[in-house]
Amino acid sequence: MNESAPNPESGIVEISLSDISAFFKRNWLILLLAGLLFGGIGYGISYLVPEEFEATAKILPEYGAGGGAGGLSDLASLAGISLGKTMSDALRPDLYPSILSSKPFLLKVLSTPFPLQNGKKVLLVTYLDEEAKPFTPQQLAQGDTLITMSKEQERAMKDLADRISAVADKMNGILSLRVEMPDPKLAAACATFSLSYLTEFVTEYRGGKKFEKVAFLRQQMAEAKNKYQRSEMALNAYRDRNRNTYSNVARVGEQRLQTEFMQAQTLYGQLTQQLEAARLQAMEDAPVIKVLEPPMVSNWRSSPKRRNYALGFAILGGLAAIIFLLVRQKK
């Protein structure tokens, strides 16, 4: 390459565009061959990289309370049942990615059997790290407490955390889930499991206490119904036995049974109304998570991108050739 004389004051060598153009004209064949050679090497190296398959899903969660049954409060008011006005306890959708990156979730995924393309089932903890051992029942029971695991199990958990990602779009509220695995069916199964876990988690968070209240009221109503039926049978049986009796003792006994019957009937009616109100409240507060795009078993690998490998190595080869030619010319 022709270089102009260095400036004695600054010590800077000035290179013109014509010098650069002349350099490439003289050495274009060498640069081309170097790029092709390195590109071929990169393309070959891509076959040594394990293949990965991607499964994606998109869901649209709710952003407010009462999304599950919008008009149930109006229906309840027509029936004479007041659901009351409660503060919204909805879980913000922008927190959903944190749920899918939490250690209890990863622990559950690692300990769940998933199918492969060949029909076999594997545990991810041993599939992602062959040196790791399956989690023990004691380790699985510590999901909400202090989590302890071996180095191999922790390594598998970190690998899984890098393979599952979720991003919430604040503009349209859509949550995008992405799972990448060495097996296409495994990736789709993990994505489906993640959606199920997220739905169960949000439902339990929103309606856990309400469903417990429904179960408690249902049990109390069953007991009140039995008591109501027993008191009714006792009153009717007493009346049949004392139909032609006009003594004051018989009247007092009938009044006592009548009072017990009325109390049991009132209690049964009140519990029935409370149970219906609790059920409607639980339904109205149930979260809505609509799956826009379910996971699909991919027929094409997501990585490695063989063209990218070839292009990257070709550029690297061209740069290496330029440096080599410049160094040789300096000598």
From TrEMBL:
Q: Where are the transmembrane segments?
A: 28-49, 309-327
Q: Which residues form a coiled coil?
A: 214-241
Q: Does the keyword Amino-acid biosynthesis apply?
A: no
Write down the InterPro entries for this protein, in alphabetical order: Bact_polysacc_biosynth/exp, LPS_length_determ_N
Alphabetically list the UniProt keywords.
Cell membrane, Coiled coil, Membrane, Transmembrane, Transmembrane helix
What topology does the record note for this protein and the membrane? Multi-pass membrane protein
The Polysaccharide chain length determinant N-terminal domain extends over 14-110
Q: Which domain of life is it from?
A: Bacteria
Q: Which GO terms describe its cellular component?
A: plasma membrane
> Where in the cell?
Cell membrane
Q: Does the keyword Transmembrane apply?
A: yes
PANTHER family xrefs: CAPSULAR EXOPOLYSACCHARIDE FAMILY (PTHR32309:SF31), TYROSINE-PROTEIN KINASE (PTHR32309)
Question: What is this protein's record name?
Answer: Polysaccharide chain length determinant N-terminal domain-containing protein
